[in-house]
Amino acid sequence: MNSRAFVIPTVIVAFSFFVALAIAQEPEGPQTSPPPAVEPSPQPAAARPTGSRISVPAGTRVAVVLENGISTRSAKPGDSVYFRTSFPITQSNRIVVPVGSYLRGELVESKRPGRIKGRGEFRMRLNTLIFPNGYTVDLNAAPRSADSGGKETMDSEGKITGPGGKGKDAGTIAEGTVTGAGIGAIASGAKGAGIGAGIGALAGLGAVLLTRGPDAELRRGSTLDIVLEHELALDGSLIQFTNVGQALPVTPPPAAQN
Description:
Elements: H1 3-24, E1 53-56, E2 61-66, E3 70-71, E4 80-85, E5 89-91, E6 94-97, E7 102-111, E8 121-130, E9 136-147, E10 153-154, E11 159-161, H2 166-210, E12 217-218, E13 223-228, E14 232-235
Antiparallel strand pairs: 1-14, 2-4, 2-13, 3-12, 4-7, 5-6, 7-8, 8-9, 8-11, 9-13, 10-11
């Protein structure tokens, strides 16, 4: 074998060895090319609380107490009315509308009694329900019965009508007749009594014609049943099911004066 042919491969192998050793021992320093980009690992999406939808069906009755008095003497359409619930609404053994929740509505009609005929009447609607924690929902409800302590009546559409004034009018005329007869008798005897009675009756009739009938009213503290006319949709995640509400004392309205 030619010795020269053997030396050349040996030199090549030795040169490659020293080059590899130099690269391995090269100190760390600035890199001429940027390191490969590391893609961030995807983060899991934050879980959003999902509350169940709670439906209170149409036709549900809600017991409420009136917080501000209403009278056709001063009421007008658009006036606000305020109530609070006096009995809870439950569903699936849970309280979904606690005692002490607030309701707001407005008068949609108000009419004073006439001087000769016609009774005082008003009608209202409730449009907002506010839970004790501030959760607020739209409401569509109307009263169906009321205990006002007076002689007001309510029809199937929630219109409240005041008592008539016929008995009071008859009493006013009779009182005027008696008073006039007494004055006439003192002045001119029996004949004067008849004349005085007629004059007194006319005076009593005039007083009736100038006086309106009794106003329709609901006093503060009156209890009512309202009926949901449409389904009430509630967000379960916003209801505090452990809040059973706080029953407040109900002061009955004063008895109406006859």
